[in-house]
């Protein structure tokens, strides 16, 4: 059950009963006629598909009502542009938000099937790489729940983030054809498509009015076809949508090739056109990969802007007041070419003057930055832009020329700083800095945590801040409690609802009411029972996925996130090796039993991240087989980390690892998911950890290591990792084991690059933080032995997690940046509720 002893609100009217009856009829209809099954051949997969189509019908009904409401009331609308939407599974989330879970469960039971097994047939829609894409998904849920007229725009990749298997300890990537069996809840908009151009050349001519006019004649045209994913709000009738574009050839075949017998060339050209939406993040180490990635970015924004303008013109005579009706949020720099595209439309198609067009463009766009690492800021070769988007290059040069004149006129920047803020990066090969374009072309720029927002105005955007101080603001990230508590942790949800009511589902700050139960022994016992049940579920999952048997009573210590050196999974595994050594040196010593779980994917071309996965796998293989260790230490790498796997890991976690080098993580959202599910955090003062500390106090979180100013100071004065290595005998022994092939007896030298990177560079200061991390882990182990103390801290963390809801984040965006309304709720016929008895 999604919530223990939960039930649908009592259906008070005959109309409501008829509504539920129609659900059963629709389901039976889809099972027989859409799926084509008789009662003798039905399988779990068929039940899933028929249920998906049935719920799709409900979603479309509400989506149509929502769209009619927007048309009648004509509110300002927000469009969220993102190249990534990590949606995960959708059907269960829709059942919860629509208030249909219990009814559907009873209906499926009536057919002799278990809904939990049925829902397992849904593939994760992994159309994103990590936190950025998952944040976008959470935002859409909150916009619908808050009744904000908000829509997502992205790309419908045929293949999402790759499937990961571990072979001989190493990551192997397999294609993720997430829609191979169809997507029953998807709405294919065959009547909505837009033409997108590439290549070609530009022309200018003098109009009859003596005005210089510009024309772009594309050399290649691709069609963008619309696919909608309905996004239902929780306990409201609002259903918005995420519109994803699929690339289609503008014509089935080039008839010139076809008629002259070159059938393969005709098919090849069609295939090349449709490659644009084929795969998330094509390998951009080659020129063709770079072209494809830039094509994806322009393809998405060009189609989306055409769609927005078409929608606007259906109810408004002109674009004069577009800024009063439309807001566009750029999720990182990937869609920032949209600034140049809107300018092109206004200048070349609408025949607006520059100043008028620029004023409208900057009023509409706002930009979210997601990194403080200069090397992570996106840039493109001018030569590539000139080839692929020649008119946009001209517009970008003009934007830059006018901006630099303005920047110089302020007299606030030196010439060196002028060079920093220029969109065009000079050098042997000129490049276009997309972050600079995004800052200049947006009216607001935000970071995603208080520390991050402070850092960007002191580092990467310092010069911009001197001339645009009013542009910069903070919007701390959040997560949606509907997925990350109600859906993923039904036991804890029910326990909380019984004590404080169900209002926390849409107002997470109400969790503060839990504080008055911290001293309630019965409540703490119930809390411990729910956590232990979740840990046992996780133990079964680990056994089925890896064959490893863990002690579900041990300290479950988890680090699940994208593999990157700055996230410092390597620091974690170094400490695991140190703990392993201590047990080996003294097999009878007391050690708090601990299960260390890793999960995450490394980018296919990221050699060092993949080597760290290999090291973790090899360490696990040796530690888990060692008879001296027994059940006191287990190491697990759970392959193919994804949203649905996170939903099963997080509820069973005791300790959340958030250990990035201070000043490198923009925010983090896994830290919030763990906090909301009653895990304690060990982490650096980085990203949103800073605000988590403020919420819970230092006695309820395990903070260690260098702070951001100390990191900068250490690097500025010259960091020498060997100084730290020589002072720490245990760390020396750990590194010796890695260098001398203790964990690679049959693969000598394989981990030498890891050894060399730490001893000679250590860019992310693992050695500098190792001792502090180790000592804090010892405190964690000691605290865990006092389960009553641990549970008090866990309850307090959940009680203080209210700030980290995307409902709060989206309210701030709506009020401070987008200026879009939060409409009154129109209650649906059925609502999800909790048994509060």
UniProtKB/TrEMBL annotation:
PROSITE patterns in the record: PHOSPHORYLASE
This protein's UniProt keywords: Carbohydrate metabolism, Glycogen metabolism, Glycosyltransferase, Pyridoxal phosphate, Transferase
Entry's EC annotation: 2.4.1.1
Co-factor requirement: pyridoxal 5'-phosphate
Gene Ontology molecular-function annotations: glycogen phosphorylase activity; pyridoxal phosphate binding
Lineage: Bacteria, Pseudomonadati, Spirochaetota, Spirochaetia, Leptospirales
Record carries keyword Transferase: yes
Protein name from the UniProt record: Alpha-1,4 glucan phosphorylase
GO CC annotations, alphabetized: cytoplasm
Catalyzed reactions per annotation: [(1->4)-alpha-D-glucosyl](n) + phosphate = [(1->4)-alpha-D-glucosyl](n-1) + alpha-D-glucose 1-phosphate
BP terms from Gene Ontology: glycogen catabolic process
Function: Phosphorylase is an important allosteric enzyme in carbohydrate metabolism. Enzymes from different sources differ in their regulatory mechanisms and in their natural substrates. However, all known phosphorylases share catalytic and structural properties.
